Every structure is written in structure tokens, then in C-alpha cells.
Amino acid sequence: MIHTNFTPGPSQLYFTVSDHARQAFKEGIPSISHRSKQFEQISKETTDGLRQLLSIPDNFYIFFTSSATEVWERIIQNLVAEKSFHLINGSFSKRFHEIAIQLNKKAEKLEAKEGEGFTGEISVQDNTELIAVTHNETSTGVVLPIEFINQFKEKNKQALVVVDVVSSMPYPQFDFSKIDSVFFSVQKGFGLPAGLGVWIVNQHCIEKAEALLKKGISIGSYHNIPTLVANAAKNQTPETPNVLGIYLLNKIIQDFLRKGIDTIRRETDYKAAILYHALEQHALLSPFVKDKNAQSKTVIVADCQNHTEKLTKFLLEKGLQPGDGYGSSKKTQLRFANFPAHSKEQYELLVDSLAAFQG
Amino acid sequence: MIHTNFTPGPSQLYFTVSDHARQAFKEGIPSISHRSKQFEQISKETTDGLRQLLSIPDNFYIFFTSSATEVWERIIQNLVAEKSFHLINGSFSKRFHEIAIQLNKKAEKLEAKEGEGFTGEISVQDNTELIAVTHNETSTGVVLPIEFINQFKEKNKQALVVVDVVSSMPYPQFDFSKIDSVFFSVQKGFGLPAGLGVWIVNQHCIEKAEALLKKGISIGSYHNIPTLVANAAKNQTPETPNVLGIYLLNKIIQDFLRKGIDTIRRETDYKAAILYHALEQHALLSPFVKDKNAQSKTVIVADCQNHTEKLTKFLLEKGLQPGDGYGSSKKTQLRFANFPAHSKEQYELLVDSLAAFQG
């Protein structure tokens, strides 16, 4: 019997989700019209709550999409006429770059070594329209420091800075004056069922999409930025959305607000600290990411080498489900999500279990 | 208190859905990985079940999308280099045409008068690559006879015939040798929460998408047909999908299979017959669609003129929620969904209530 799922998404559900879902069915939420006042109210509460939770300024719009994968495509479609630049530090940032290629853009890239991030000043070509950064690489557990991300805006005024925060939100606090867009999906840090993405953009993104449209470049249809803006202004969506998903997101945001974002962040720090410490002390295991500045707080990757299979079995027997290593690291690494759904007690049990593992 | 929601989507939930959802949470379904054997099994059962329910031949692929609105865009992206042709008989077929324009295609159209469908032979230009037909117009309650749709394939061998069945499935039985693609969303005839679309394509669609790609035309990224095919072959999806939605769709399909598609169709016919009869007999109301061949069985529109508001109130008092007329017909029409979730008893109560309405 699995008690705690440490897979980094879909991950452990936040402990209130199933009760909220039961309540949703009781209230008939899955049957309400997405053009009703009731839906508009739910939608407004969700975006207001998110704005409060993450200190998102008023000049940013919040859109609902079907997934973060969709947002990759919408960003390239809406914000790039010709040229994007991608910092690649794992499989997901790589996929974002590939999507730009698939949409026939000139997509430049800078790749970090596996398990490493970036440091120092990065020079970007003058004609770059978009700088794409993955804050937290779910595949490798590499995080980019926020100060590193903040360097781009000032030096590249012509470019929009977009940040993939899929597996880090709600942990990081961004300086929204230094970025133009962030996006995530709800099945990771928000502990919800998959099937909903959130895309946050500022006025510069809206202007860019409108400029492309004016030039006759197709920016997509129902989910292009102007259509999303027009609908968001009414607290609606262009299509019939995942209404139940939005309802549940609202409920979890309210739960997070009651708990307090500071508490959530402090607990995340604590849990990350004890897990990294356990890995560093362990005779057979170690953190995959060596540079402390690049060690993610929200997706922690353990280098387990030929102990991987045995450790997985050992943890499963205790009801702890580790995430497999990503791709080619499946047989040598394990990943541990550290989301608000993972309690301090569950992390303490995980750490004690790792300490007890003798190979 | 609403007992029955006749709005044509999101509509009345099928009566088993909330129990299935409770079971899903109990089994931890919202936490499972979309790359797991367990997900592949759910996905396979869903597509196998749908194939059986709707007699979909083996040479058709079944994909999961986020909505039918998304499918409109994917169809144009993947299946049209330059020119599509749209039969427009209401607001949704009109929107499909507009999406083709937004994606910079030469989209031709033929428009029916409001509340009317099409009859006879339709001539299509030789260089048309796609013929888009909306089987059942959710806005007007106009259905196109299947024999009408079947005319296109034979006479236009160069073109793909795609059919929007958003508000008619699972009622109609198509001749899949006469069409290349159909699509729907689950919050209508399948009585499920919104947030999932189903797109069904044959080999000709796959070949067309591959041909566009070879020409250097972008066909999108994660949801282009080749990527969907490669993932569907493994019973997976390119992105993290609405796993809970797919699980619930599978459960409802199994429920429909147990009930039997013939019974579902027969009950649909019965319910439509008694409602149209009641409207025809009524002193103050009438069917909006006059031509019997164009009268939808699954979305029945009542012309209520200045009785609309009063009738709505009258029905709501009996716990019956009618759907508003669409767009500019909001003040003069009411729409009644006739989906498998609407029981014979509920329809009989609706019909008796209409008969009792004296204005």
C-alpha cells in the first residue's frame, strides 16, 4: 500500500483534494455552464487567490490552459516571429526548444552539462525575441537561482523573458519586474489531478502577440493571447474548460493561503535540507546535483547507481513511492518531489528510511 | 433545487459519474503516472470500449485532446495546407470556419439559413483539401442526415471529410468508410465533467499530416498527428493528460456498453419523439427547426418567443433546468439536451410540465 507518492508529477495529492472533489459533485459543479455567473465567480476567486499567494502584480493576466506542455506551444506561437533563445539544462527545457523548432522558428540554445545549471553572465543575440528559461528542471533536479534569471531583462530590453516554473511553484518568489511570463501545471506543486495549466503574462506579451497578428503571422486561434485576454476580462475561458479542475485549484489555493506561503516555503526548505543532508551522509547514495546553488528544493534527485532497484523496493515496502530517474537515468537515479502535499512527517520517515538502507 | 439539467453541455452528469469519481480517488488514480502500465491499461480500455460502442473500424486511431475546440485547431493545422470548405449551419460550424481563417487558410464556406440544414448535392471545388461538416449544431438544433454527409467522400477523393459530432455522439452510427475523422467532447453525450476531447482519425489523415510536414509546413508540436499516433501506439499521450477524465470516460463507456448502444439509441428516439410532439401540440410553443429531417434528436430547440422567461421560471420551479437559446436567440428560444444522462422518466416529466404550461 502506497502511503506517500514522491514521484514529481502527477504526484501526491494535497490531503484536502478528495474532500473538495466530493463537495464539487455534491454542489453539481461539473454540470455548471462555463458561461454562468457561478463559473465566473469560481474563476475570479482562483485568479485572485493565486495573485495573492504568489504576489503577482495587477499588470499580469492569468490564463487557464490544458497543460504546461500546451503553454510551451502557445508561447512560441504568440511571442516569437523568428527567433527564440533557450537555456537547456535537462529534458524539459530541451523539449521547449524542440517545440520552437517544430513551429518553424530559429531557436538558438545554450546547453548546460547534465546535472549542472548556469552561472555568470549569459550573452544573448540582439535580435532575440524571447528568452526561455526553465527555473526547475524536473528531469535532473537542477534549479536556476532567481538572481541568475533576473539578469536577462535589463540587458535584453527587446526580448521577453519567460520562465517555466512547472515543478517549482508555489515555492519560488519571483521579481515580476524582471520577467514577462511564467507557467505551470497543477499536478505538481499544487497537489491536484492533472489536466490544467496556468499561464501568466504581462502587457508586453499581449503587445507582442498583437504585433505578430498585425503582421499577418498566425498566433493560433481559441488560445491566442488576445482571445485569452478578452475572455479572462470576463473571468471566462474561450473553450469549455476543465471546470472541476479550476474549482479544485481554487480550493487548494485557499488552503495554501490559510496555511500561509511563508510556512509552505519554510517547510519546503526544511524538508529539502534533511533530504540533501541524508544523501550527503549516506555511504551508498549521494545528491546527483553537486553544486549547492543548483540543487532544487522541490525536485531532489538521488544518485543511487546500482542500488537503485533495491532501494526502490526497500522504500515501496515502507509505503514510500520514489520517482524513477528520468529517461536514461532510470536505472541509476531516484527523484523525490518536495511539494506542499508532502508533509514534514512524511519527509522525516523518508529520511529515516534512507538512513536505514544498507544496500 | 435542480433535479435535471437539460443545458446542452456541460449538461446533466450520467448518474454513475460521482460514484466513479469517488472510486477514482479511493484508488489513487489522480496520482498515477501517465507513463505507468496502469495508465496505459486505462487508456487502452477506453479506446477499445469506444471502438466497440461506436463500431469504429481498426484503421482509425483514437486520440485524447483537451476539448473539441482544440480539435478544430488541430484539424486545420494538420490537414490543410491551403484550402478548406465549411458547411455552416449555426454558431459552432461558423467558429470552425473562423479558426481556419485565423490559421491563415483559404477557408471557403456555404451557409444555411438559420434553423435550416442542407439538402441535395453540394459541389465542392477541386482543390479543396478538407470538407468540414457539423453533424449536429448545438446552437440551433439542426442535424444533417448521415446520408447527406456520405455524399462527399465519393465525389471528392482528394479531400478529407471531417465531422463535428460534439453534441450528437454516441447517438449516430456513422459509415466510417465515408468519413475520415470525427471528434467530440465528453461533457455532452457522455455526461461527464468537461476537460477532455476525443479525436478519431484514419490513415488518410495521418498521411496528409506527414505530407504537410515534409513540405515544411508546421503542423504544431505536441499534438500534431504523428506525435499523437506515436503515443497512442503505446496507449499514452504526449503531455500529462486529464487522467481522471480518461478514467471516468472509460467507466461511462463500460456503463453504456452494459446498457447497450441499441437501447441508448432507442431511448433517444423515444425522448425526442415525445418532446417534438409536445412542442408541435402546444398552443404557445413550437419546434424551432421546422424540417423534420433537420430536427436534431440530441439537442431540441423550442421556439418560445415572449414566453421564454416565464417558461424558464415555470420549469425551474419543477427542478427542470432548460438551456438558454444560443446567442441572439437567448430571449426567444430554449434548448433541451437529449443525452443518455437524461432518463425517459425525466423526459416524461419535462413533457408533462410543458403541456401544463399555459403562459
Q: Describe it for me?
A:
- The structure is a homodimer of 359-residue chains.
- Chain A is globular.
- In chain A, the strands form four sheets. Chain A has a seven-stranded mixed beta sheet with strand order 2-10-9-8-5-3-4. In chain A, strands 11-12-15-14 form a four-stranded antiparallel beta sheet, covered by helices on one side. A two-stranded parallel sheet of chain A has the order 1-13.
- The first copy, chain A, is 40% helix and 17% strand.
- The first copy, chain A, has 359 residues and is α/β, with parallel strands linked by helices.
- The first copy, chain A, is built from twelve helices and 15 strands.
- At the A-B interface, helix 1, helix 3, helix 4 and helix 9 of A face helix 1, helix 3, helix 4 and helix 9 of B.
List keywords for this structure.
homodimer, 359 residues, alpha/beta, Aspartate Aminotransferase, domain 2, Aspartate Aminotransferase, domain 1, 2 domains, four-stranded antiparallel sheet, 12 helices, Pser_aminoTfrase (chains A, B), cytoplasm (chains A, B), pyridoxine biosynthesis (chains A, B)
Can you summarize this structure?
The structure is a homodimer of 359-residue chains. Chain A has 359 residues and is of the alpha/beta class.
Q: How would you describe the shape of chain A?
A: globular
Structural class of chain A: alpha/beta
The average pLDDT of chain A is 97
Largest sheet of chain A: 7 strands, mixed
Q: Biggest interface in this structure? A: A-B, 53 and 53 residues
How are the strands of the biggest sheet of chain A laid out side by side? 2-10-9-8-5-3-4
Rounded Rg of chain A: 20 Å
The CATH topology of the largest domain in chain A is given as Aspartate Aminotransferase, domain 2
